[in-house]
Design goal:
seven-stranded parallel β-sheet; alpha/beta; single chain
Length: about 1000
């Protein structure tokens, strides 16, 4: 691609070209809307989401028992499989049909009937499938949607793509928003879909059907044959080539039941390629081990489960017995619970040593979940299959207490793959623990790696910044120290006492000294105010149970009993200080569940808990008062790096000086050290740089709080590229400001003033761009506080009204002082209005396209601001005139839509009187014959059939207009009727 950013249409053309090179049969804009071409060829109406005639041809070809004589009955049954009230339930049910076939009864000549499973897709011989990539695949049922590109396998939509142009102030975020709106408007169109793709010219992300925005992700690595300097092209080629797409569809999908909302699980790129490496190693059999080194938070559990699914369902091994081995009962419970909630059938749990031994001896082909400790007394001679595959989670723990040797004795012929985010390399002596030596063949460090840097680049995990708080000015309170300590060192000067404390007192002892506890708790309490304001939570990590109880007491005094919980293991003989925080396992589990949600507690104080296997995106800040090193430190860091909407980074406040010398604390390669945790000074520098970048957009404009300055700034960001730069730049700036604050340098260096000034501009920008009626309500807490110091919200609201279509708003619109602001406001209002009415009248689609053309020309500088305003006002008048003209003619919206179609869309010799009569008769007959009184009438197949009969009766029998009975016109009328009647209901 050239250095110039193509328009949305240009990106669409490029994507179709890339898909064509991958083997998809493409239909591109040069031929008109590609889907329209395919619609005409296979007779699809817009109410349908499958090309049934195309699918009929293919299933007859790939299934011996289906013929042209019986395929219609099969497809009629399949149509009912698209009827679901819940999108994800329907998607799961249809996925089962796609991957295992549909049960169907066929007649056998002179021999009764036979039950078969008919395939919709030929996974065994992929070349037998029909692959199409089309643009503008329009579907109209209760709502109307038209994704930019749709990939169809045998006429079934498998991928829906929405493409955005950054030259038009849109990016992949907007594409995700559109896709989610499409799923809500016409869920039926996504019942067969594998996943969605959102892209602009720079970024491509994909997400499973029903996925929230935070679960969209990039496909950022690729085999050599698909690699490209163009990131979007590389992702299209690596993810959407037919081989990979069908592979993902068949072997890499789970459905998970969750308390809040069920989810469809599809692989991340590192999971997919790691699994392929493992399968290749097992298939080739050259080595029987390998190390998967994937950073914490990348989803190692699902990598293991995808591996298990593939080994059980493919023909690589005849009857493999698979083991997932974890190192704690807690992780065992987590894996067991996850499997219980997944669409994964062949698995069991080894609940005891005896149970594990019996399971190994039985040698059944299934997945076995167990802890490493259960191998302690397993008889070495019980293995009954040479097709055992072991996957050890947290592989560095596999080597402890000689448990690895016990496992190897129990399963001597097994393939053994280690999974870790924190490998151990303790030294060069033979007895030293070394994860790489244990799991990797000679001359291989790892089978597959996904580093911390990779995770941060993919925004799969967040960078973590640390603040050092370990240096304290000790004011030694003689009475506050233990009597024995005080007496032993009573003769020493104060300076020598301090030196002894620093050099000889352990971190555990320090954490239990009253004056220090008071000081640290005060620091935590003050710092956590800023964390909590934006809805994040914190964790205090202590070196002892006593210190945890001491911190817990004081934090509860400051923040309230509900806000703080303390977790540590308990014993019967604990003193009262500890007993007040005793919890049983069930209570601890409930506390953890509450913490992960929006409930209390806001702050956890822990000792020897939750540092591994604990994922809570709401956790932003860890207060570290314990010495940690190497893999235990890496695991602690990873607790704060899980992404969440609005969360810029994780944070560690270090009261022990662990991070004072990161090279000593982490025995890893330079890249891992560099990206594991970074000094908070770097975060402050990022804020300064981002602030400068956003301020540069307004270079030459005085930084004053006057209405004239606001007007001038809005003019500056009314067109590309400044509009996009400000929209995206301020979003990033807000995230950074929220992460850095509170920090006295924000005031000292007057950053808060510059930020407040930009906040004023952004508030006005949001209003004039019609993005939000009250943008100040959407700001996060600290941003709102600083912006309110610099923004007169009432003034901005009066001078920058949210613009709505209608003559009564024209006077308000004229309050905008610049043509650029007017053009931006009118364009957004018209686009919002026409998009919501698409399908109600053919004029709306044409007017929406006119707005896009005007805005593109304006953004490119080919239209001056006043000219753009005038052109947009003309379109606005045309939008308003649709309703007015319908009222003037005495027609309903549905009647006027059909009348407009007959007089403006068709090349017909019809008088207006004839067109009006046809329109009125069609709607009248529809009213008489179609029941619209029940929920879901508009998606019912009977409605579709009845509309066709209505049109045949009116056009042919009543008016002798058989030439109008075309799929295109029937499809259009169906859309007008559905859209207008649904709009009336709303």
């Amino acid at each position: 691609m050239t250095n110039e950013q193509p328009s949305e249409g240009g990106l669409q053309t490029s994507v179709l070209q890339w898909l064509d090179g991958l083997g998809w049969e493409t239909y591109n804009p040069d031929e008109g809307h590609g889907a329209t071409v395919l619609d005409e060829r296979y007779g699809r109406q817009r109410s349908e989401v499958v090309y049934w005639d195309l699918l009929a041809e293919t299933v007859v070809e790939i299934n011996d028992e289906l013929t042209e004589a019986n395929v219609d009955r099969f497809l009629n049954s399949l149509r009912r499989d698209l009827d679901h009230d819940n999108l994800l339930d329907g998607n799961e049910a249809f996925y089962e049909i796609l991957t295992t076939g549909k049960k169907h009864t066929v007649d056998q000549q002179h021999n009764g009937t036979k039950t078969i499973y008919a395939d919709l897709i030929d996974f065994e011989n992929p070349e037998n499938n029909r692959l199409h990539a089309v643009d503008e695949f329009a579907v109209s049922r209760r709502g109307s949607i038209r994704p930019d590109v749709t990939l169809l396998v045998n006429g079934i939509p498998s991928v829906q793509m929405e493409l955005k142009s950054v030259t038009q102030d849109n990016d992949f975020y907007d594409a995700i928003t559109d896709l989610q709106a499409y799923e809500e408007k016409v869920p039926r169109a996504f019942i067969p879909t594998l996943f969605n793709v959102a892209a602009d010219q720079s970024v491509l992300q994909y997400g499973a059907v029903g996925a929230p925005r935070e679960f969209y992700q990039g496909w950022t690595t690729a085999p050599e044959r698909y690699q490209s300097d163009n990131d979007v092209k590389q992702a299209v080629q690596a993810l959407l080539n037919p081989q990979t797409l069908l592979d993902v569809l068949k072997y890499f999908v789970f459905y998970e039941e969750r308390p809040d909302q069920d989810a469809k699980i599809i692989p991340r790129h590192m999971q997919y390629y790691a699994v392929k490496r493992i399968l290749n190693r097992v298939e080739r059999g050259e080595h029987r081990k390998g190390l998967i080194w994937h950073t914490q938070g990348s989803g190692k559990s699902f990598t293991m489960l995808f591996t298990a699914k593939n080994l059980l369902e493919r023909d690589i091994l005849d009857a493999p017995q698979l083991f997932v081995v974890v190192d704690t009962d807690k992780l065992n419970s987590q894996m067991r619970d996850q499997l219980a909630n997944l669409s994964f059938e062949r698995w069991t749990e080894a609940e005891s040593i005896e149970g594990l031994e019996d399971t190994i001896a039985a040698g059944r082909s299934e997945l076995v979940v167990t802890t490493i400790q259960k191998f302690q007394d397993v008889d070495p001679g019980v293995q009954s299959t040479d097709e055992a595959v072991v996957m050890s989670d947290e592989a560095h723990r596999f080597m402890e207490a000689d448990l690895g040797s016990r496992l190897e004795a129990a399963l001597p012929d097994a393939y053994h793959f280690g999974f870790t985010g924190t490998p151990v390399r303790e030294g060069d002596r033979e007895k030293d623990r070394n994860t790489f030596d244990e799991f990797s063949p000679e001359d291989e460090e790892y089978l597959h790696r996904y580093s911390i840097k990779d995770g941060i680049d993919d925004e799969l995990i967040l960078p973590v910044f640390f603040r050092l708080r370990h240096e304290m000015d000790w004011d030694v309170d003689e009475a506050g120290l233990d009597e024995e300590f005080d007496e032993a060192f009573a003769t020493l000067p104060k300076e020598e006492k301090l030196a002894i404390i620093r050099d000889h007192v352990t971190s555990r002892m320090l954490a239990e000294i009253e004056p220090r506890v008071e000081r640290v708790v005060a620091e935590i309490d003050d710092h956590f105010d800023g964390v909590e304001k934006n809805g994040w939570k914190g964790m205090v990590v202590t070196p002892s149970r006593k210190s945890a109880a001491m911190y817990g007491e004081r934090l509860i005094d400051r923040r309230g009993e509900d806000a703080v919980d303390v977790l540590f293991t308990t014993t019967q003989n604990d003193p009262d200080l500890l007993q007040q925080f005793h919890t049983d396992p069930g209570e601890r589990d409930q506390i953890v569940r509450d913490f992960k949600n929006e409930d209390e507690p806001k702050l956890l104080v822990v000792h020897n808990m939750l540092l591994t296997g604990f994922d809570a995106p709401v956790l932003k800040t860890m207060y570290l008062d314990r010495e940690l090193r190497d893999h235990t430190l890496m695991q602690a860091i990873a607790r704060t790096n899980r992404p969440a909407d609005g969360k810029e980074n994780g944070e560690i406040v270090d009261f022990q000086g662990v991070f004072e010398n990161i090279d000593d604390a982490l025995d890893y390669d330079d890249e891992t050290k560099q990206y594991a945790a970074q000094d908070s000074e770097q975060l402050f520098e990022k804020l300064q740089n981002q602030l400068d970048a956003v301020l540069d957009i307004f270079e030459g404009i005085p930084r004053e709080d006057s209405q004239e300055v606001v007007d001038e700034c809005l003019d500056r960001v009314s067109t590309h590229p400044e509009k996009r730069e400000f929209k995206q730049g301020f979003r990033r700036l807000q995230d950074l400001y929220e992460s850095v604050s509170p920090d006295r340098r924000l005031v000292e260096e007057r950053i808060d003033e510059d930020y407040g000034w930009l906040g004023r501009i952004h508030t006005a920008f949001q209003r004039t761009a019609n993005r939000s009626e009250r943008p100040e309500d959407e700001m996060r807490e600290k941003t709102r506080e600083i912006v309110e110091e610099h923004v007169d919200i009432g003034e901005i609201k009066r001078d920058y009204p949210v613009y709505e279509l209608g003559a009564e708003y024209l006077e308000d619109l004229d309050h905008l002082r610049s043509d650029a602001a007017k053009a931006s406001t009118i364009a957004h209002a018209i686009q919002e209005s026409t998009q919501s009415r698409m399908g109600q009248n053919p004029r709306y689609e044409r007017l929406s396209e006119r707005v896009t053309d005007i805005v593109e020309a304006w953004q490119a500088g080919d239209r001056a601001d006043p000219e753009a305003v005038e052109a947009l006002r003309e379109v606005e008048a045309a939008v308003l005139a649709i309703d007015e003209e319908a009222n003037k003619c005495g027609m309903s919206d549905a009647e006027f839509a059909i009348f407009t179609d007959l007089t403006e869309e068709r090349d017909l010799d019809l008088s207006e009187d004839t067109a009006e009569a046809l329109a009125r008769d069609i709607v009248a007959e529809f009213d008489d014959r179609v029941d619209t009184s029940y929920e879901g009438w508009e998606t019912n197949d009977q409605t579709v059939k009845e509309i066709e009969l209505v049109l045949l009766d009116v056009l042919v029998k009543e008016h002798d207009r058989g030439e109008l009975v075309t799929d295109e016109f029937i499809d259009a009328v169906h859309t007008y009727l559905i859209q207008n009647y649904v709009a009336d209901e709303a």
